[in-house]
Description:
Helices cover about 40% and strands about 20% of the residues. By secondary structure, it is α/β, with parallel strands linked by helices. It has a three-stranded parallel beta sheet with strand order 1-2-3.
Amino acid sequence: MTAMSKVFSGIQPSGDLHLGNYLGAIRNWVADQYVHDAIYCVVDLHALTLDIEPDELRIRTYETALDLLAAGIDPDAASCSSRARSPSTLA
C-alpha cells in the first residue's frame, strides 16, 4: 500500500466566502480530501492584521469552518481546524 501525499491549505476568515473562494480552492479541497492526506485550516491568526474585534473574529472563524463543512469537507476524510486552536501554534 502506498502512502497518500500530504496536502495542507488554509483560508483566512476575513469575510464571507464567495464564488471565487469556492471555484479557486474549496471545490478542489472537497475533491482532494479523498486522494490525499488532507489538512485544511481556518487561518484565524493571519486575520489579526485586520481591524477586527476579537469577538467578530471568533464568529467569522466559526462561520468559515461551518461553510467548509457545508461545501463538502468531510471530517472523517480530512482534518479541519483553526490555527489559534492548534496547541503547536501557541508553543
